[in-house]
Design goal:
single chain, 86 residues, mainly alpha, 77% helix
Length: 86
């Protein structure tokens, strides 16, 4: 749930705005809160999947993880050749 790493920024924003924020600021904070709530619920619904289902999917998909490896290196090689560095 990476989105929660930005909660410190939202908390600081609320602190800076104080107890009497402008209407626009209050609306912006409310919108941020709504987005965070939606993200939390989406994350929970994804993470709430059956452990056995997730394990089965991960076991099947694990083989493709290594197939993706090396893509960056290949692209760097192509770029290096194009730039005459290799």
């Amino acid at each position: 749930m990476r989105f929660l790493s930005s909660i410190a920024l939202v908390k600081e924003l609320v602190r800076v705005l104080g107890n009497t924020p402008s209407d626009g600021a209050a609306e912006a904070v409310g919108r941020l809160a709504a987005h965070l709530i939606v993200m939390r619920r989406l994350s929970s619904s994804v993470a709430g999947s059956s452990f056995l289902n997730v394990l089965a999917y991960t076991t099947l998909a694990a083989l493709s993880f290594s197939l993706r490896g090396g893509t960056r290196e290949i692209l760097r090689g192509i770029l290096a050749r194009g730039l005459g560095l290799r």
